[in-house]
Amino acid sequence: MQIRFNSVFPLKQIQPSPAATHVRTRGEGKFSSNQPQGTVSAPAGITFQATEGESVFNRILKLASYGYGVTIGANPDNLCIIDDSYVSGRHATVYFNQFNQLMIEDLGATNTTRVNGKKIAEPTALNANDVIKIGTCTVPVNSVKRLPIPINNEEAIADCIKLELAKGHILSIGRFTDEDTRTDHVLLRLIGADKAMSPLHGALHKTSNGYKFVSLHEGVTNYSTSSKRGMLGTHQSVELQSGDVLTLGNHRLVLP
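Above: the chain's sequence. Below: its structure in token form.
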């Protein structure tokens, strides 16, 4: 069986091992009770095997890194659908919280979600090498670090902005760097950005009329709106609208 990726993912094919239980990822995205639903519809058409546990988790991690609350269950409107009679229609969700911790939450499943063999009764932080059990499907957790988004993937960046702000988070934006562990809390880390962009360049807030951007860069951040252009120094801010442009380093970010 081939794995098909939608536009959120790099195009590639993987040939998994045969297995009796299938896990499918598709449908419209819905968030758990403590995560407001964003305006972006979910990816469609990813298919892979439950026995490929690490591969399953890697795809969950990528969706969560891009801002999705990854609902898991038997219903076809979940982001991750498990065909298993022991899995509830809406079983669990995996997401990054505002502190960039990877969380799992049971959604009232009949057969409660387990982490390392223990039932979870409240949102629980995941750690590398944990093992998630949903129904009869076992998924090992190989990493809990949020994945960066390629600077040229405008669709994924726009999704992340919409989804994180819809949750009420302040969206910190910066250049991805392996060397600086202090930037682990940055919610939108852009891989492939040049060094003119800081590891923590600025923060984007949702306002009643649009956005507010606060520059945290030790230098100048340029912006342009339909009526003017301007520059921001460190800790200066500007009110922006959808379609306005921020220049982060040498890269233009069009606000969705």
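The chain has two helices and 21 strands.
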